[in-house]
């Protein structure tokens, strides 16, 4: 107990001093990862403070990721290194179980559509048609901005010719699109806003630009607008990265009201919106309307990024970007500096695939197949896991984001390892936060790579593991 002794300063809140002291002990490894902190009454008596002070100190430690409360057991220390090491471990673990060995696992970590749904014969026909039509020309480098035919098809079929084709740029997936925009528009110490939690790939791009990152909590219908306004009033925000449909990882979709309000704020506070339109093709809720931020944008404030890879096939690295006229040259220059061009043959093939109506048919087939999986998981979560997790039913997309009940004495890291031991792969929530101390009670379950039988089997395993930690 002696290591917890400190002289309390009357000018600073006592709970804050105690919290800082314990945080220091954890960082210096004088209190080890997983070590039980003193009981509230014991520490209160030792430091001659009331129990409310200790409760407040422990709560602050939990918020900052330095402690974990286990119901009926006490509060336990968690160090920074544990989280940092886990990020490397998760990456290495996933590499080891990928490829052929992944077939022995039930994979709930997938973010892209399953290869079994890819129309191989149809796409083979399209490729042959392109080669017969264009010959060797199909392999010639295109403009760095993309094959003109595909850019026109995107405008015609997805935008009803409402945008300028010259503002459409073909990219190698959404990740490259985000990276190109970040290089063009974000400098060191620029202020950017992101959703909390958010897509880890985008988060890593912004960290790499050494930007000041402001997080806004996600709610069921989009970000907390009130919290966003407070940030905007105090800080000059340059860019706001946003996922409009089935946000990764929360599954939340923005309401029409919030879309319009955020667009108005962009004009009022002079910032730009980087919209990542993620899996909006997979809408299972018949009452949900599709309207992107870009389609509602009357002030040219939205930079729109769309990936074909996630919804079509990951190996076909294609997507597109629509830039505001103001940034067109800067973003195009950033693309040129990133790579020379995106595969000419694949661009021509996708162009023909869209023109021939195959894209529309494929999306219809995907919706039917994934709606079955979605409903299976939704019903299981509602009926079997209802007392162990909390969840926002997304109404579409390819995943669910679950919060572990306070009654369950386990965090997402321990749950991940327990599941892996039983050949089930989940995605821990800590991967989606700027501060990896957040998200410890959350995990994501994707159903894109998992068939109906494996979904049931995997969910039963997760249910059994969670039940074993019930207090």
UniProtKB/TrEMBL annotation:
GO molecular function: transaminase activity
Gene3D superfamilies per the UniProt record, alphabetical: Aspartate Aminotransferase, domain 1, Type I PLP-dependent aspartate aminotransferase-like (Major domain), Winged helix-like DNA-binding domain superfamily/Winged helix DNA-binding domain
Signal peptide boundaries: none
Highest taxon of the lineage: Bacteria
Keywords, ordered alphabetically: Aminotransferase, DNA-binding, Pyridoxal phosphate, Transcription, Transcription regulation, Transferase
Keyword Transcription: yes
Domain (HTH gntR-type): residue spans on this chain: 12-80
One Pfam family from the record: Aminotran_1_2
Transmembrane segments: none
PANTHER family given in the database record: HTH-TYPE TRANSCRIPTIONAL REGULATORY PROTEIN GABR
Family affiliation: In the C-terminal section; belongs to the class-I pyridoxal-phosphate-dependent aminotransferase family.
Protein's UniProt name: PLP-dependent aminotransferase family protein
Origin species: Clostridium brassicae
């Amino acid at each position: 107990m002696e290591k917890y002794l400190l002289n309390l300063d009357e000018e600073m809140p006592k709970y804050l001093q105690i919290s800082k002291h314990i945080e220091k002990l954890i960082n210096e490894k004088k209190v080890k990862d997983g070590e039980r902190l003193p009981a509230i009454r014991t520490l209160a008596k030792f430091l001659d403070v009331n129990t409310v002070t200790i409760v407040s100190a422990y709560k602050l430690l939990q918020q900052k990721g330095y402690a974990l409360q286990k119901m009926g057991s006490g509060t336990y220390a968690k160090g920074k290194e544990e989280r940092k090491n886990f990020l490397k471990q998760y990456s290495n673990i996933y590499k080891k179980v990928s490829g052929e060995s992944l077939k022995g696992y039930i994979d709930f970590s997938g973010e892209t559509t399953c290869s079994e749904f890819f129309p191989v014969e149809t796409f083979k026909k399209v490729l042959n048609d392109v080669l017969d039509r264009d010959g060797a020309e199909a392999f010639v480098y295109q403009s760095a901005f993309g094959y003109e035919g595909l850019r026109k098809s995107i405008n015609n079929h997805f935008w009803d010719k409402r945008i300028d084709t010259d503002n459409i740029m073909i990219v190698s997936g959404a990740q490259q699109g985000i990276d190109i925009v970040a290089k063009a528009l974000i400098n060191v110490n620029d202020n950017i806003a992101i959703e909390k939690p958010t897509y880890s790939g985008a988060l890593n791009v912004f960290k790499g630009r050494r930007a000041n990152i402001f997080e806004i909590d996600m709610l069921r219908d989009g970000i907390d607008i009130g919290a966003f306004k407070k940030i905007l009033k105090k800080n000059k925000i340059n860019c706001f990265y946003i996922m409009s449909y089935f946000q990764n990882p929360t599954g939340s979709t923005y309401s029409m009201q919030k879309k319009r309000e955020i667009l108005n704020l962009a004009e009022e506070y002079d910032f730009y919106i980087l919209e990542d339109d993620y899996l909006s093709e997979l809408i299972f809720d018949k009452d949900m309307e599709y309207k992107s931020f870009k389609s509602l944008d009357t002030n040219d404030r939205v930079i729109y990024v769309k990936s074909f890879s996630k919804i079509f096939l990951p190996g076909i690295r294609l997507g597109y970007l629509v830039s505001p006229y103001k940034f067109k040259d800067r973003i195009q220059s950033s693309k040129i500096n990133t790579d020379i061009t995106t595969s000419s043959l694949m661009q021509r093939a996708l162009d023909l695939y869209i023109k021939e109506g195959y894209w529309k048919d494929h999306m219809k087939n995907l919706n039917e197949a994934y709606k079955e999986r979605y409903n299976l998981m939704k019903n299981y979560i509602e009926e079997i896991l209802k007392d162990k997790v909390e969840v926002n039913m997304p109404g579409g997309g390819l995943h669910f984001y679950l919060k572990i009940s306070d009654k369950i004495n386990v965090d997402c890291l321990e749950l991940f390892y327990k599941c892996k031991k039983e050949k089930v792969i989940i995605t821990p929530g800590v991967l989606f936060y700027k501060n990896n101390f957040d998200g410890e009670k959350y995990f994501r379950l994707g159903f894109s790579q998992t068939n109906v039988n494996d979904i049931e089997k995997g969910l039963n395993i997760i249910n059994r593991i969670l039940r074993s930690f019930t207090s």
